[in-house]
Amino acid sequence: MEAEITLDVDGSRRTVTVDTRTTLLDALRDRLAVTAPKKGCDHGQCGACTVLLDGRRVNSCLIFAVAQDGAEVTTAAGLADGETLHPVQQAFLDQDAFQCGYCTPGQICSAVGMLAEAAAGQPSAVTAAGPPANAATTLDEDEIRERMSGNLCRCGAYANIVAAIRQVSTAGPDV
């Protein structure tokens, strides 16, 4: 069975017909030629397919495209403002936070999402007990590593990825 859906992908309204069993990742890559999210494990274990769905980070290989009809999807390619890179993208360049680059789009989208989660006061497994509700979380290395643990880098660029996220997190709340 097929269904027609409309997605706002990186600022462009796109309509596509998909099989109802098609994942968002496959709809983006195979039907809409949006190649920023990568297919790594196809099981939600590596994070290479991470996108922002209505502002929240998701593994696009785990959700059906038809359930996202009308949603806003932002990939790493859609974060820049024209020629001006998003602060997270710029920090990844500044800190040399990639090697082969395969995981980088997912890492960047996940970092943008986790920065928003931390700013909103959403706790993680390592968040200190007792912060006031909705108070921004301080992002030290342990906090960043925990929040980014769903994104794997086969090359092992973790130290530079953490440094890039620290660069942005210390720059201010308007990321």
TrEMBL record:
<dbReference type="InterPro" id="IPR001041">
    <property type="entry name" value="2Fe-2S_ferredoxin-type"/>
</dbReference>
<keyword id="KW-0560">Oxidoreductase</keyword>
<dbReference type="InterPro" id="IPR052914">
    <property type="entry name" value="Aldehyde_Oxdr_Iron-Sulfur"/>
</dbReference>
<dbReference type="InterPro" id="IPR006058">
    <property type="entry name" value="2Fe2S_fd_BS"/>
</dbReference>
<dbReference type="GO" id="GO:0046872">
    <property type="term" value="F:metal ion binding"/>
</dbReference>
<protein>
    <submittedName>
        <fullName>(2Fe-2S)-binding domain-containing protein</fullName>
    </submittedName>
</protein>
<keyword id="KW-0479">Metal-binding</keyword>
<dbReference type="Pfam" id="PF00111">
    <property type="entry name" value="Fer2"/>
</dbReference>
<keyword id="KW-0411">Iron-sulfur</keyword>
<dbReference type="GO" id="GO:0051537">
    <property type="term" value="F:2 iron, 2 sulfur cluster binding"/>
</dbReference>
<dbReference type="InterPro" id="IPR036010">
    <property type="entry name" value="2Fe-2S_ferredoxin-like_sf"/>
</dbReference>
<dbReference type="InterPro" id="IPR002888">
    <property type="entry name" value="2Fe-2S-bd"/>
</dbReference>
<dbReference type="InterPro" id="IPR012675">
    <property type="entry name" value="Beta-grasp_dom_sf"/>
</dbReference>
<keyword id="KW-0001">2Fe-2S</keyword>
<dbReference type="Pfam" id="PF01799">
    <property type="entry name" value="Fer2_2"/>
</dbReference>
<feature type="domain" description="2Fe-2S ferredoxin-type">
    <location>
        <begin position="3"/>
        <end position="79"/>
    </location>
</feature>
<keyword id="KW-0408">Iron</keyword>
<dbReference type="InterPro" id="IPR036884">
    <property type="entry name" value="2Fe-2S-bd_dom_sf"/>
</dbReference>
<dbReference type="GO" id="GO:0016903">
    <property type="term" value="F:oxidoreductase activity, acting on the aldehyde or oxo group of donors"/>
</dbReference>
<comment type="pathway">
    <text>Alkaloid degradation; nicotine degradation.</text>
</comment>
